Automatic annotation (TrEMBL), chains A, B, C:
The keyword GTP-binding does not apply. NCBIfam families: urea_trans_yut. Gene3D superfamilies: Ammonium transporter AmtB like domains. InterPro entries: Ammonium/urea_transptr (IPR029020), Urea_transporter (IPR004937), Urea_transporter_bac (IPR017807). Keywords: Cell membrane, Membrane, Transmembrane, Transmembrane helix. The gene is yut. The keyword Acetylation does not apply. This is Urea transporter. It holds the Pfam family UT. The lineage of its organism: Bacteria, Pseudomonadati, Pseudomonadota, Alphaproteobacteria, Hyphomicrobiales. It is found in: Cell membrane.
Length: 329, 329, 329
């Protein structure tokens, strides 16, 4: 492998950008800055190191396995790897075994991405999206409970009956703004408001409709979570918003051609994602696993599978995200 | 949308009928009467209101999304919606948020129905049947635990080890007859004996073989549940019988051409459904979710997937249930 | 059915052999001897009787349903049945109902095998392998908790938080050798060292590369389990090794054409299987179900799905395992 700019740096940066469906190196750079800023703010750098490591290993693995070069160039094998790399240090204490875990996990995320492409995408046109990240990280994090060499922090398994239902307290306006941006930052597992702002700017650099959809998704999630009286502490961290943000973008702009009907369709999908977030929090509780972006992945799969019925049309600037998996199969 | 008889009332009534695979408006009317009678007997009308609301919303959604008109006419987008509408009020206390939940849930059930059609049915000829109802209602009910605006009644999450195994007590003959009909009524989540009788009459109106299969399924389930010593309280409510009733009909009459071999095949499927009922009760326990018709759905999928091997032939009068999903994709 | 040698005994013995992908009657005989020896050593014969019963019923069912004769001859409908027959008596106390359970379970395993062939294999070229055994046995064992007629021994449902992480104690060399062979024996749920030796000899009789892959899988699993500090009691029983043994064989030799690249690929798959073993132990805990060969099945599916990308080539002597499912659909 030649590690020159066009062969390696650009695909990696685009891989970061593809977490929000943006095949844009500058956008990816903004996202990496957002991740770094959150580390700077908290003093915990393992997440940033893990993100970069996961991104590189995932991209290198795709090259080593000679997966479709156009997809690699578009960053389509990097975005699951960066998420594995940022998620594992968020829930497992730093140690040499954690880094081993991230290296293997990021490599496996690339293989699972190819696996989803060869099945879901090939047969049904359903994009794998961050599904491979969710599956790979669930398995690795659940495994970590079994291994003395890895220490899981927080999130102990519990019964759903222990789950605290929300009280009626509605956050103050300033906090609403914070949550609005945290909803975006949490896609990268970042609870930092500024990081959310940087990410949103990065999205707008690549696509205005995508940026508007992200904002709409965050706003809808915020309103629904408060109306349904979800646990305020969870809402406040932005944990009810990041999946709806992705759903709003994916269904409203990225994988379907935007129209009045599609906007309504994406609106229902976004509201449903909030409900599925509540559902998976309960369903996953006994396993001691966070739901990650599974509420988005599940809802998006269900809403995109019958998309031919609505004569969709992939979004031009990021068409690769919708179609590249086909190229890999 | 024009809400005249041919365009709206008939498809809706057929939608009710399709819960038992019957594309017959009169049968559907009988089913609605059975649901109403159970509400009259218990004084709880939320289930009947929910059923009608779910049926209408699901059908309207299919029209709004311009799904295959022949399938809409046949009621194939209504039967999951009516089940969502009757199941949610059974487990969630009535409130404005419940009705919002049913509206969104019924709309989503139509999209999930199209999703199953575009995947399972398109690729493998497996009918989605009530799978979309099960998935949608699981997600909504699990979500309800997370939301203070919705109050889940009963069915708290527990460990399977808390599950009570059955004692040997065999019910008296009169109670056996009650259970026989409750096994049929519980397909609509109705514990009422008379409702079961009305439903069975409704099935016979549309198809004698289907009615016989329903009776056979109920009887087999009753015998197996007692022989295996399942929890008597659960057996008595008809909760061990409704999935086997559907399996016996689906595998023995609806989705395969009835023959001696197919009857034996359906018999094994029906017995297996009783075992899967016991299994899912245990597996779902930690989530605090009922298994709904999942034992039927899972067993039927597994037994129908290789049906080409047995040269099946869809049942004429209700062929649409077997084939219409294809039209929607 | 004529029960002469070519029609019945040979397919059955090959069915036993196919558990390790070997279409070889002598190998199958060795495996049956290994199972019998373990019964002799422990004095518990229910597992051996169950194995033979499951093998026969599964094969007879395939004949009765007129499934593809070449696949039946190759033993491809027997290997899930023998595993159902050996697994159920391992976790359920012997009783007339257990034998009924095994008969129905083995028959259903054949139908589920056809079901996986008609879906996973037909659409995506993914071999069902022991997936049908895992699914069927999970359902039956979970069901057993619900039925007073069946008594589940050990393995009560628990929360993952009760799971004991491993200490650092590294087993002595002699015990390492024991574990090395138990890792192989546990594919048949046998904790006996001698049984593991007999099985390994049986594999070498049919294929030297397969035997070497089995040894490599066992060694890798042993090293990883110790390095990751998995629970020593579990490691010692060989429970961290049997799935990796199958993964190493399946990915390295059976379903892909062996090469330097494929050996590396299989190595990553084998290591990942150890992690997935740890994961599923935690995830399955609340259900009170063992993970059986699910860690192998899941990992193999994910690694084989995109196999076209690596231009694979089925292993000659056991090509039927890779391709026969296609014939059944």
């Amino acid at each position: 492998m030649m590690l020159d700019k066009s062969n390696f740096l650009t695909p990696s940066l685009k891989g970061a950008g593809q977490v929000f469906f943006m095949e844009n190196a500058l956008t990816g750079l903004f996202f990496l800055i957002a991740i770094g800023f959150a580390s700077y703010a908290t003093g915990v750098w393992a997440t940033t190191i893990g993100a970069v490591l996961g991104l590189i290993i995932a991209t290198v693995t795709a090259r080593a396995l000679e997966y479709d070069e156009a997809s690699v160039q578009a960053g389509l094998f990097g975005f699951n790897g960066i998420l594995v790399g940022i998620a594992l240090p968020t829930f497992i204490a730093a140690s040499p075994f954690l880094w081993l875990y991230i290296v293997i996990g990021a490599a496996v995320s690339t293989i699972v991405t190819a696996s989803f492409a060869a099945t879901l995408t090939k047969s049904w046109g359903i994009p794998g999206s961050t599904g491979p990240f969710v599956l790979t990280t669930w398995l690795l994090l659940a495994g970590a409970y079994s291994f003395g060499s890895l220490q899981v922090t927080g999130n102990a398994p519990k019964l759903a009956s222990d789950y605290v239902q929300g009280t009626a307290s509605i956050p103050a306006v300033m906090e609403l703004l914070d949550i609005f941006f945290r909803n975006i930052g949490q896609v990268f597992l970042l609870g930092d408001t500024i990081s959310g702002v940087i990410i949103l700017v990065g999205i707008f650099i690549a696509s205005r409709p995508a940026g508007i959809a992200a904002m709409a998704g965050s706003a809808i999630a915020l309103v629904m979570a408060i109306v349904m009286r979800a646990d305020p502490a969870t809402v406040s961290q932005g944990l009810y918003g990041f999946s709806p943000v992705l759903t709003a973008m994916a269904v409203g702009v990225i994988f379907m051609k935007t129209s009045t009907k599609v906007v309504l369709y994406a609106g229902i999908a976004t509201v449903m994602t909030v409900f599925v977030q509540g559902a998976l929090d309960v369903i996953m509780a006994p396993s001691g696993l966070p739901s990650f972006t599974a509420p988005y992945v599940l809802t998006m799969y269900l809403f995109i599978a019958p998309k031919k019925l609505l004569s969709p049309h992939p979004h031009k600037p990021v068409a690769h995200h919708a179609t590249a998996d086909k190229k890999t199969s």
